[in-house]
């Protein structure tokens, strides 16, 4: 079992079919996603930048976000040390049951008529709030892990609220609107992604193309290694790590709440030949009982509802019933045109 969580050699089960390979030579070299300075006052110019980024990219990086640098480093150290433990020391977390609260797992790419392909990564996922409810389930080793997460979760909670307020205002809504619509009891999960260095990055994927199913993601990536790529105008654009920045992306639920105006964009992670890479995604989404649908204030004669309303549990059920990583879920909730 331990072997299945740590890819060591490039065996055939990791090799992506030819038409799905990353074609790294074709990445737009100059393109990048917008960078937004959160130190700026909330002015119409800041809101304009946010709404433009959300409409055109679904992704942006934030700088001067107020989360202390030492804390960001501490949590990345904790996560990295966890992945560096000998496989048998973290095997207790390994599971193929993706509905588990705390889980270490691999993703697969499954295309019709083809064998499952294992992604060149190991993912560790658990809730980040309410912290006291699950802290006893988190790793005791490295000793730093629980403490670093408790502190980080608090800071990220504050940042999520600020971002949701800015994104709401960017839609022309009340600043509390999205937060209220996602619900008082959001589903908050963390996912640490570990991408070992890979002998041939052209043959593998770290994470296959997907959109995030939640509402909002705050991602920290380790310095110096690029791996995340997003689709812009049909081309892949690399998201280079910049110091002390977070990558922010919208998930499917904000696309639905905004009635399709703000985008949950396809992205993927590729591997690197020489450097392992670690990233830490903090997800903010509705709870299973919450009902999600386009915000009424965004609907008028010119903008009929694109999606029907649903309980989030229904969305999750559709998500888990689709195999592989490239899940197409929000499309199932579109209304006929
Ligand atoms: C994710 C994700 C990208 C990365 O966790 O959903 O897209 O850079 N991660 O690890
Ligand atoms: Ni993602």
From TrEMBL:
Residues annotated as domain Fe2OG dioxygenase: 186-286
Ion transport recorded as keyword: no
Pfam families (UniProt xref): 2OG-FeII_Oxy (PF03171), DIOX_N (PF14226)
Keywords carried by this UniProt record: Iron, Metal-binding, Oxidoreductase, Vitamin C
InterPro entries, alphabetized: DIOX_N, IPNS-like_FE2OG_OXY, IPNS-like_sf, Oxoglu/Fe-dep_dioxygenase_dom, Plant_2OG-oxidoreductases
GO MF, one example: L-ascorbic acid binding
PROSITE patterns associated with the record: FE2OG_OXY
Homology family: Belongs to the iron/ascorbate-dependent oxidoreductase family.
Protein name, entry field: Fe2OG dioxygenase domain-containing protein
